[in-house]
Amino acid sequence: MAENQDGQEKSHDPTSKRIADARRKGQVPRSRELNTVAITVLGAATLMLMGSHFANGMDRLFRGQLAVGRDDVFDPNAMLAHLTAAVGDALWMLSPFFLAMVFVAVLSSVALGGFNISGEAMKPKLSKLDPIKGLKRVFSAKGLMELGKSLAKFVLVTAATVLLLKFYAEELLRLGDMDVRTALVRGLELVAWSALLLSSTMLVLALVDVPFQLWQHKRDLKMTDQEVRDELKQTEGKPEVKGRIRQMQRELAQRRMMQEVPKADVVVTNPTHYAVALRYDPERMRAPVVVAKGKNLVAANIRRVAAENAVPLVEAPVLARAVYFNTELNQPIPTELFLAVAQLLAYVFQLRAFAAGGEDIPAPPQEWPVPPDLRHDG
Length: 378
Prior knowledge:
Blueprint: H1 16-24, H2 32-49, H3 51-65, H4 70-73, H5 78-113, H6 119-122, H7 131-138, H8 141-174, H9 180-201, H10 203-221, H11 225-236, H12 239-260, E1 266-269, E2 274-279, E3 289-295, H13 297-308, E4 313-315, H14 317-326, H15 338-355
Helix pairs in contact: 2-5, 2-9, 2-10, 3-5, 3-9, 8-9
């Protein structure tokens, strides 16, 4: 298990913020072996595909620029002119190869960790000159891995080179019996095939190095318990502050909710544990809306505000719990409760008629038609 400088165990995977901070510092997974394999393989493939182009170009170069005429012997500037032209022709002939190499070098570099430019990584750091830290890096898991890769690379390349020399030995000797043009074409073919086979041996190292670099990068970014807590404090604030903010938000929400209670048509209660305030405007609402609800202390405050503002209080435990648990604030009631709430509102409207001078006081409903799946007993 990885540990930090204080000996604390890094047991947590890196968070997205940790990964983003590491990228800003230039810490991204990279594989040198992947880059080496890509460049050598593409280089060999380019030589094979464009072998005739290079052979014709070299033939023209030898014949046109390295041939010295009689007039050139007496011209002191002729050799410099031939050399300049030869360099220009060679660069033009090799430009496709160079462009391909640049393209694959950039692509293979960003294939593993993505494109990333970090100014912080470019800053000189005196800590890199510390010999103690240098020794720690050499004998770390990453340093030992690099040593193992170097030894494996030497063994693989050496073995492949010996085998190639034994296989192509006779053909290499026969190049001396060919004319210049044929020898150039065949020689380039041998070089290309040899480079391709040699680079193929590096695929083994790349297949091992890429997973190792990803594992090493993730291991380096692992976090201790303290680092996780510190990051949470930085990103989301201290727990005490967050708790106080949540409390203030609840108080503001309750204050706004209490301001809606006087506008309600009725408050249905449990009678003490739950209270729900309903409002219904037939001209603007398709169904009654819950404007306030709460339990225990909040329910007591709803009842108090309702009593102070002459909002009817109706005791209906089954209906109060059903509305409380199955509705959201400022949302219409479910269709399954339409019949029960309609009876409630009809009773409230009868109370208003009695208060306005009616003869008989209405009796409250004895049964509330609440579906069994919406009931919450207790």
